[in-house]
Structure formats: C-alpha cells, structure tokens
C-alpha cells in the first residue's frame, strides 16, 4: 500500500493538483468545471476517448443531483474511474497466488524491448518464489544476447533455474525445452521471455504463434496467461503498443511498468478501458520487490489520496 502510494506520487501530484484546481471555489458542476476536469484527465495521459467517456458519465449523474462539493465530485470521479478498470475474471494473482490448480502454470511474457520485460520477469520470479512457489525461466528472446544475459543475471539473483540456448537459436525450441523441463521438474510456474521487435507485425505474429504451438504440444491448455508488458512512462505510446500486440496475439493480462517517476500514470486507465484486458501488475521501481499486484480499488484510492 505504501509502495503504491509512493510509486504513484508523480501521477498523483499532477492529477490531483489539476483536479483540485478544476473544482476550486465551485459548489456546482458547471461547464467550466467539466472542461477543467477534462483537461486534467487528458494531461495525466488518460487519453481523449476514455476522458470523454468519464466526463459524459459524470455529466449524466450530476444532472440528477446538481449541487456538488469537491468531495462528492471526487467520489463520483473515483467511482467512474474504478468502473472503467476491468476486473479480472478470476482472483488473478492476489498475493502472488496462481489462479487455478494448473502445474506448471505457464506465463508467456510479451512486449517491446526496453519496456522492462526482463525486469518484470525477474520481479515475478522473486515474488512467486517468496510466495513459496518453484519457478523456472525460459529465455526465448534469442535475438539479443543481452536479453539472455540479463535474464540469467535475474535467475542468479533470485535463485531460480533458467532454460536457455545460444543467441540466434530458435525461440520456439527454447520454449519447448523450457516447458518440458518445467513438467519434468514439477515446477509451479514457468515464465517465458519472448522477443518483441516491432518492425514487422506478421513476423511477430508468426513467432508468437509458433511458440504457442510448441508449448501446446506439451500442455494443450497452455500458455495459461499471455502477459503484455508496457512502459507506463511512455504514455500514449504504450497504448499504440497494446494495439499492436493485441492484434498479433491473444493477450490475456497486462503489466504496466515505470509508474514511479512518471506523471502519466493515467495511461493505465486508457489502456484498461480501450482493450478490456485486466491489468495484473504494476512496476513502481527497479528492485525485485517493486512489482505490485494490481488492485483497481487500491489504485484509484491511491490516486485520490
Ligand atoms: P526489456 O528490454 O524490456 O527487457 O527492459 P529491461 O527489463 O532491461 O528494463 C529496462 C530498464 O527499465 C532497466 O534499467 C530497468 O531497471 C528499468 N525498469 C524496469 N521496470 C521498471 C520500473 O517499474 N520502474 C523503474 N523506475 N524502472 C524500471
């Protein structure tokens, strides 16, 4: 809770400061207040479409009970924002528990280089291990030597095994070996890193389909989760990447990184609203502990505190 409040500090400052100014000295929600609200939301990177949706809903509700103080307006806003965030269909990863009784639980991690994909995998390994689970990493981003090296560093740091091959090896064959090894070792969770080069959508789609196919040769219902990692500090760029990846493969959950150090945390709302995919994790720092299980109520609560 504390690290969430700290992690969202910059977003809160920008967002709340503007919201407060938007309603300062007003006791009714008029055109001007709504305009100011709109501006505050857009500048926190909530995005135009989602902002308009929020404002519309507030306008509808305000018409019913016209006189509103700042506190009530804040409450209304909180409710509307929370309603936009998709509730995960299952209990998700609450306390880093795994949904269902599947073993190994296979998480395919996708995303563009530089967004914090490797770090997120390392943090997840750490958190799952802390929650008492056995973890295996699969280094299927074989296009960059650095990707394998960095994942290896995380595997040593956290103390979990890794399946890897030389640079340039077939990513699908690494994934295949990793799943087989996970089954043989009886591990609880397998995290597979993938390459995220963006220049060619068809290529990305082929690569990810191929990886899925080989995983399914071993475990037909896997991957159990396809986690897209997005860099929250890139604002609307992250929205573009989400569009790209959801078109290339079936993404089932999101991790949004680097929310510390950015005032663009509102992008979480834009992405959740536009893609209707649950945000599972948020990154609020570089250390292994700096990955939080996303809870929409806590998130919104923290934004308004
Ligand atoms: P990848 O290329 O997507 O695998 O990206 P990396 O995992 O190597 O991360 C790129 C940089 O972002 C590294 O310097 C990480 O320490 C940093 N990073 C990753 N997640 C976070 C986060 O949540 N907050 C902050 N401040 N930095 C992060």
From TrEMBL:
GO biological process: SRP-dependent cotranslational protein targeting to membrane
Family per similarity comment: Belongs to the GTP-binding SRP family. FtsY subfamily.
NCBIfam families in UniProt: ftsY
Location relative to the cell: Cell membrane; Cytoplasm
Name of the encoding gene: ftsY
EC code(s) of this entry: 3.6.5.4
Catalytic function, reaction form: GTP + H2O = GDP + phosphate + H(+)
The protein, known as: Signal recognition particle receptor FtsY
Domain annotation SRP54-type proteins GTP-binding: ranges: 278-291
């Amino acid at each position: 809770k504390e690290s969430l409040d700290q992690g969202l500090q910059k977003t809160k400052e920008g967002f709340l400061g503007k919201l407060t100014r938007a309603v300062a000295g007003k006791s009714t929600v008029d055109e001007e207040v709504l305009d100011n609200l709109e501006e505050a939301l857009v500048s926190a990177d909530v995005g135009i479409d989602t902002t308009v949706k929020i404002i519309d809903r507030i306008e509808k509700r305000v018409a019913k009970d016209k006189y509103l103080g700042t506190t009530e307006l804040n409450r209304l806003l909180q409710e509307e924002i929370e309603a936009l965030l998709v509730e995960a269909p299952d209990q998700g990863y609450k306390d880093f528990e795994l949904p269902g009784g599947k073993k190994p639980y296979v998480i395919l991690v996708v995303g563009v280089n530089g967004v914090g994909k490797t770090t997120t995998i390392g943090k997840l390994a750490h958190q799952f291990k802390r929650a008492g689970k056995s973890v295996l990493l699969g280094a299927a981003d074989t296009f960059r030597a650095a990707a394998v090296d960095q994942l290896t560093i995380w595997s040593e740091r956290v103390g979990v095994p890794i399946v890897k091959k030389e640079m340039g090896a077939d990513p699908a064959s690494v994934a295949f070996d990793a799943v087989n090894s996970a089954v043989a070792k009886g591990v609880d969770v397998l995290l597979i890193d993938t390459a995220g080069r963006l220049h060619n959508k068809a290529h990305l789609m082929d690569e990810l389909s191929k990886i899925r196919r080989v995983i399914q040769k071993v475990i037909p219902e896997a991957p159990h989760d396809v986690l897209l990692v997005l860099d929250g500090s890139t604002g609307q760029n992250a929205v573009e990447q989400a569009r790209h990846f959801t078109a290339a493969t079936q993404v089932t959950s999101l991790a949004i990184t680097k929310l510390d150090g950015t005032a663009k945390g509102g992008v979480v709302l834009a992405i959740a609203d536009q893609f209707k995919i649950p945000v599972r994790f948020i990154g609020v720092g570089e250390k292994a502990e700096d990955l939080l299980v996303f809870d929409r109520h806590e998130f919104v609560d923290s934004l308004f505190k």
